[in-house]
Amino acid sequence: MRLSQLLFTQGFGARRECEGLVLGGHVVIAGRAEDDPFLEVEPEGLVISVRGEKWPYHAKALVLLHKPAGYECSQKPKHHPSVMSLLPVPLRVRGLQPVGRLDEDTTGLLLMTDDGALIHRLTSPKKHVPKVYEIETTDAVTEGQIDALRHGVVLHDDRLPVRAADCEATGEKSLRMTLLEGKYHQVKRMVAAAGNTVATLHRSRYGVLALPADLAPGQWRWLAGPQAVLGPA
Ligand code: URA
To answer: Where in the sequence numbering do the catalytic residues fall?
Structure first.
């Protein structure tokens, strides 16, 4: 692939801008500034440096963001900044989108990708990808509430009950719940239907992936590919 084309696919702007980056000596490969936009490079496994920042080539981008409270998952946020604003410009230009949504006040593990097929695979209820939520409640958690969440509660716009794949108390006023679907406000509505109220909500796992303890709120990192979330094929 031509170097300027590679930059274009990675979100470094319009074709002309990508050519300009190379001509201006801002693109370094293996310690050497390359000034030929038409240089043929092998993209797989390539790490380029653009204006001093390292960029591993990814045909499709998949990143993990530690979502802080106070950010909306929408592309057109209404009251708070978008989670997109936490990503560097090339990832925004590439059109990364959140995989499902977390509420503005929910924190934790948010996947973002430009791979539409992967979004479908991860969010389809038929695929049963588990998501784990750490919940603090306003009132003490009871055995009855845990039973209800495990056996199923009916949300008012649904005919059939939804149940947690797993649910346990983690403290007097806290719960850990695993869901296989991702309905609108599902955790908050399920906890409300069971007779309690969510005070804080944090997603700690998505598939086999746990939110790394050393990833601070607002920080993001690359994931190697879908197997980082779905496990080995
Ligand atoms: N369920 C909710 O209610 N909110 C979230 O942000 C995620 C799951």
So the answer is: 103
